[in-house]
Write a structure and sequence with these properties.
The structure holds 2 protein chains of 2 kinds. Chain A is α+β, with helices and mostly antiparallel strands. Chain A has 27 helices and 21 strands. In chain A, helix 6 (93-122) packs across helix 14 (385-420). Chain B has 5 helices and 3 strands. In chain B, a hairpin with a 5-residue loop joins strand 2 (64-70) and strand 3 (76-82). In chain B, helix 2 (11-23) packs across helix 4. Classes of the chains: A alpha+beta, B alpha+beta.
């Protein structure tokens, strides 16, 4: 298009009225000349004018053609179509509101789930070149990620050629006393080089040196930005200051920039400062992260780490037999847990939106019938078919855009609601704010939605039979259209059946999971984490402090018993160690056992049954003989036909001369790690012997445990205000929290499937009501010919149920094919669970019956006299 | 001209005729219509419904341009004239037309 052309088009657009006047004038001139000529040839003025006008056939249509020849057509018509659409939609506002709300809910749900998935699966992690970061995990036969041991980590660091750097870290909770209040801080012990691997520079000061990564040299600490702002007032001279961390004085050496947290939500870092003496090859509790060298892939690194692991295995057969290393990209590692569920949820909300589209398309078709005259009239006035299609598409798009905008607003609220349903501290890398990707997604599905529900009705409607429509009312003339609508209803029912079955399976699975016997009596148990300042209490003093707290809590009125444990069940805390049984000559592997350090009365408090022997008691002190209590699984494994009491086991690597522990008791088994499965067998050790920090208090109460929170805090504050009491929750809450993911997914599934069901019912109701209205005349004839109300009722319901049954059959087929995808999300539930399939089909059919019932009843009450007059 | 003939009188042909007529000087719409009837000895007739959209299309394509000036009866009329591009287009189309009609004539004569 050249410049003058462009200018002309611009003029056409901006001087539209002027140009229309010119066009009128040109036509007038032509008419005038015709009339003049006719008069000259002897006609009367009247006839001359009439003849001229007659020769000027289709005046308005040619004007329209001239206008479109100007080339302004497109833009001007768009403006006109939009304003026309707006007027049409405002006029039928009930229709508009229903459609917009349907779309807003569909698009809103999709945007919310997409934002959620975007924050977890798509957004890059908040570290420079985060795609080069990899996670190294140790695996044992049949077990993923048993935790990294420090000596193994050192070997990896020395021997690999694939990584720019590897760092190890362990998370813990520290207490800090700031402003007279003991607070709990999520903290990490990190090896030298962690920040370099992450490529994040401190905002102030420096990071740890290699020298500081040693015991006795490690009196330094780095602060996170928020912590620095909140407790140090953003003091720019904070570097070099002394702070007390867990009772030990450390020097601040650096402050990390705003927004930096690693791992998860940690915002305080101290050196790992381990030795292979303290942390043996048999202790697996660290995590490791590495940065790949440029140009190398995860797969290459994996194969090298594989051979390094094999070499370590060869040199240390006792501790490392069968151990391997798994290398995954950091992003995959972090998001992997959520990936499958999120993809399935995206599919689910996508289906809901499709059902919504089908419903709206149905409404549009119904409305189109009512508007047939309007379109016929427009066609008669010279509108081309394309013009009418475009007009209808504009209406659809306009509806979609309004729905999309509203949906976007809804999604922000929905996402917030969704996030409150997640009980864990969300790690910093999960970022759910709205970004361009979310906006693009919303825009994309909005337009796509408009097209999906708009195209079919537009094409159907624009195929107008001009004469037929204008001549008579469109009575009974829309057979094809009603077939299209029936097809849409079948689709809707089939799709909602698939969704409902999916939801049914999820709910079924969740209910089964919730009723799993975990081996604990969780009712009326209060739990709280106690963070004792590390340096303030030497080991024995800490044991004494915990003993004192437990004693005071258990003497509170209404507290039946109290105890403490280093690892609360189902709380994500595990401590696995190798086990050697004295005199056992069977398989030469050391099984990993769940190590739980407890104080006396733990079993009674938690509702674990003492099957044989005795509980720990006050005579199990630092200096008494080493004792342990094992669970029934371990007992059955090694002493299937005899009592294990008095037998001896020891922990840690075989070559180490760890002391032997005498078994003094056997208790019932519990599901310590996950509700979903039995994991490692458990051993219990007395806290007096192993006075670890970070104990959790447990108390069995005679009434609602929540009533005891205040008293518990008071007891602890009285004994030492520097001990932080955090994570106060009932055991029921801890259990519920451990299965928040299945709960959330089941809930979302149920909500979405319910929405789809509602839409499908509205759809089938709409079609049946329309059918009755269309066939009132026919029904009248039938009744006049002797059909009873019952027959009519059966006719209508029969038609609706036929559609339903077809939909249900297709839906069951689809569900069998699709639910397979959610296999990994289900617990103890087959993807073709017949109970769920039958129940859902029955519920859907019943609901569909009621949706047909109302229109059918109306049909049965038709008065043949009135119906026959009905137009 | 009966219906069949008018169907043969396709858009492209009308545009060629318009360009040819305007080659000898600018004309208004009414004049063009009269000339076509006159020159074709009333075999070809054009309705305003066909003519004006054709004129506006040609204008939109930049082949003709229009000015408003008084006509013989002293009314303001829109006069169309050929642009340089229009002249080139006319030459090209004339050549095509001649080739086409020669070819048709040859076939009709020799077949």
């Amino acid at each position: 298009m050249n410049f003058s052309n462009l200018r002309r088009r611009w003029r056409a657009l901006t001087h539209k009225n002027e140009m229309d006047q010119e066009l009128d004038e040109e036509m007038q001139f032509h008419l005038q000349r015709d009339i003049e000529r006719n008069v000259k040839s002897g006609m009367s003025a009247e006839n001359a004018r009439y003849a001229a006008l007659k020769s000027f056939d289709r005046l308005e249509q040619s004007k329209e053609e001239c206008r479109s020849a100007r080339g302004i057509g497109v833009i001007e018509n768009i403006v006109r179509d939009v304003s026309y659409s707006l007027r049409v939609l405002l006029k039928s506002y009930a229709f508009t509101i229903v459609v917009v709300l349907t779309l807003a809910l569909g698009i809103g749900a999709n945007t919310a789930i997409f934002s959620f998935a975007n924050g977890i699966l798509l957004r890059p992690l908040p570290y420079p070149q985060s795609d080069r970061l990899a996670v190294l995990e140790e695996t044992a036969p049949g077990m993923q990620n048993i935790g990294v041991s420090y000596p193994n980590f050192l070997d990896w660091r020395d021997q690999n050629t694939m990584f720019e750097g590897i760092a190890a870290y362990g998370q813990s909770r520290f207490s800090m006393t700031l402003g007279g209040e003991a607070i709990e801080i999520r903290c990490s012990r990190v090896s030298y080089g962690l920040f370099e691997v992450l490529r994040v520079q401190p905002q102030l000061g420096r990071t740890f040196t290699m020298n500081e990564d040693r015991p006795e040299e490690d009196g330094v600490v780095m602060l996170g930005h928020d912590l620095w702002q909140k407790y140090f007032g953003g003091d720019p001279n904070v570097v070099g200051k002394q702070v007390s961390v867990s009772g030990r004085t450390r020097t601040v050496i650096g402050v990390m920039p705003r927004g930096f947290r690693f791992p998860e939500v940690s915002q305080l870092w101290v050196p790992l400062a381990l030795t292979t003496k303290i942390y043996t090859r048999n202790d697996h509790g660290l995590e490791a992260i590495a940065r790949l060298k440029d140009g190398l892939s995860v797969a290459q690194a994996q194969s090298e780490m594989h051979s390094i692991a094999a070499r370590i295995d060869e040199l240390n057969p006792l501790t490392n037999q069968g151990l391997d290393v798994r290398v995954t990209s950091l992003h995959e590692n972090l998001s992997g847990n959520y990936r499958e569920a999120l993809l399935i949820l995206l599919g689910v909300v996508g289906c809901v939106l499709l059902v919504a589209c089908v419903n709206v398309a149905n409404l549009m078709l119904a409305r189109a019938t009512a508007r047939q005259k309007e379109f016929a009239l427009r066609a008669a006035l010279g509108a081309s078919r394309w013009r009418i299609v475009r007009q209808l598409l504009f209406e659809s798009l306009l509806l979609a855009v309004i729905g999309g905008a509203l949906g976007f607003v809804l999604s922000v609220g929905a996402l917030r609601l969704l996030l409150t349903a997640i009980p864990i501290d969300l790690p910093v890398w999960m970022n759910f704010s709205v970004d361009l990707r979310v906006l693009g997604f919303t825009l994309g599905i909005t337009l796509l939605t408009g097209l999906i529900f708009g195209v079919v009705p537009a094409l159907q409607t624009s195929r107008v039979d001009l004469n037929g429509t204008l001549k008579e009312a469109a009575r009974g003339s829309s057979g094809g259209r009603s077939r299209a609508r029936s097809l849409l209803v079948v689709t809707e029912i089939a799709m909602s059946l698939v969704l409902l079955v999916g939801a049914g399976l999820m709910v079924q699975s969740f209910l089964r999971l919730r009723s799993v016997n975990i081996g604990l009596d969780t009712k009326n148990v209060l739990t709280a984490a106690l963070i004792t300042p590390r340096a303030k209490y030497k080991e024995s003093e800490r044991a004494a402090l915990i003993k004192q707290i437990v004693a005071q809590v258990s003497s509170l009125p209404g507290v039946e018993s109290a105890s403490a444990t280093a690892t609360l069940p189902l709380n994500g805390n595990n401590w696995g160690r190798g086990l050697t049984v004295e005199g056992y000559a069977g398989a030469d592997q050391t099984p990993i056992v769940q190590h739980t350090v407890v104080t006396p009365d733990y079993f009674r408090t938690m509702g674990i049954t003492l099957l044989a022997g005795r509980d720990f008691n006050d005579s199990d002190t630092k200096d008494s003989p080493d004792v342990t209590i094992i669970d029934e699984r371990l007992a059955r494994m090694y002493w299937p036909n005899q009592s294990p009491i008095g037998k001896r086991v020891r922990f840690g690597p075989r070559e180490d001369n760890e002391p032997w522990h005498t078994i003094v008791g056997v208790v019932s088994k519990i599901r310590h790690q996950r509700m979903q499965e039995e994991t490692d067998p458990s051993v219990y050790l007395p806290h007096q012997k192993i006075p670890t920090g970070g104990m959790s208090l447990v108390a069995r109460t005679s009434s609602n445990p929540h009533d005891f929170i205040h008293a518990l805090r008071h007891v602890v504050a009285q004994l030492d205000p520097d001990v932080a009491v955090t994570k106060v929750a009932t055991m029921d809450e801890v259990v519920a929290e451990s299965i928040w993911q299945p709960r959330l997914y089941a809930m979302l599934f149920a909500v979405f499937a319910g929405g789809a069901l509602l839409l499908a019912l509205i759809g089938i109701y709409g079609v049946m009501a329309f059918l009755v209205q269309q066939r009132t005349h026919e029904i009248g004839i039938r009744m006049a010919l002797g059909a009873s109300a019952r027959d009519v009722f059966k006719l209508i319901v029969g038609r609706g149920m036929k559609l339903t049954v077809v939909g249900v059959v297709i839906g069951v087929g689809g569900a069998i094919a699709l639910t397979r995808l959610m296999h990994s999300l289900l617990f103890n539930t087959s993807t073709t669970d017949p109970f769920v399939f039958i129940l859902i089909s029955a519920v859907l059919s019943t609901a569909a019956f009621f949706a047909c019932y109302l229109p059918a009843r109306r049909a049965a009450r038709v008065d043949p006299l009135i119906a026959l007059r009905y137009e | 001209m009966n219906k069949q003939q008018s169907d043969l009188f396709k858009q492209g042909t009308l545009e060629l005729l318009i360009l040819r007529l305007l080659n000898s000087g600018s004309l208004n719409g009414w004049d063009i219509m009269q000339r076509i009837e006159l020159l074709s000895a009333e075999v070809l007739t054009v309705t305003p419904g066909a003519l004006y959209p054709a004129l506006h299309r040609l204008e939109a394509r930049g082949l003709i341009s229009a000015v408003w000036r008084p006509s013989d009866n002293n009314r303001r009329a829109k006069f169309y004239g050929l642009t340089t591009r229009g002249r080139k287009q006319l030459d090209a189309q004339l050549k095509q037309w001649e080739q086409f009609s020669d070819a048709v004539a040859l076939v009709l004569r020799d077949a």
